[in-house]
Amino acid sequence: MRAPTRLKAAIVAAVRRLSPIKGTQTPIAHKSLMMSFAPPDAAAEPLFALRGVCKTYGQGETAVRALVDVDLDITKGELMVLLGPSGSGKSTLLNILGGLDRATSGQVRFEGELLTALSEHALTLFRRRHVGFIFQFYNLIPSLTARENVELVGEIADDPLSAVEALELVGLGKRIDHFPSQLSGGEQQRVAVARAIAKRPAVLLCDEPTGALDVKTGVRVLEALQEVNERYGSTTMIVTHNADVARMAQRVVRFGDGHVRSVEVNTERVPPSELVW
Question: In degrees to the nearest 10, what's the CA dihedral of 192, 196, 197, 200?
Fold first, then answer.
């Protein structure tokens, strides 16, 4: 067994120790995520419902109010952009929605289930079954190929896409056996996208996915995200500083000083290929 394969086996074993065994019962029902895309329906029950959500770091005079009384409904299958300057609360909200952090007060519901009342174990189940994460930095394992990096997710997912299918979806079908050092920054980020979508997540949370990329490669990453949103119906939320990226969204949520300043509907969406920054 070559060294990278041994490393992969060790990583999978570690992940399994931290994750429940396949088939473990979860308090949130696991549903088939292969669905046709449809525009958000304001009358439909929201996928996420947030009411009075606050997040405070620290105490006393040094306390930082990262989120203040956030009320927001997020519809199943929509593509939403969270826009605002650094420190405005965008990433904090994304982490709370993904179960990586907890609100200080208020309620967060996913398909009616109260996430803010779940135990740490139940939140782990929620993340594993329902959420895919994409960050500004790719977090690929350098000694594993693109295929092997994506296959890691398949080891703990219930009904994953094959690594080849996920990589082909993001336009890397001919690069599956390349190592991260042999890929450009945009290609590495697309491997990260493929890894996130391989478990067919209901929710795709993207924190500055194009922040470290030039325009050309950033557009390719956004095209991959839009393709996943439309093909699989994954509710996709993109955090960005870039106001032009908001033009591809169905709705845009603008943040300032921990508050939701506005929620806007794009009546005419623009494809990623027409964005400029």
Answer: 170
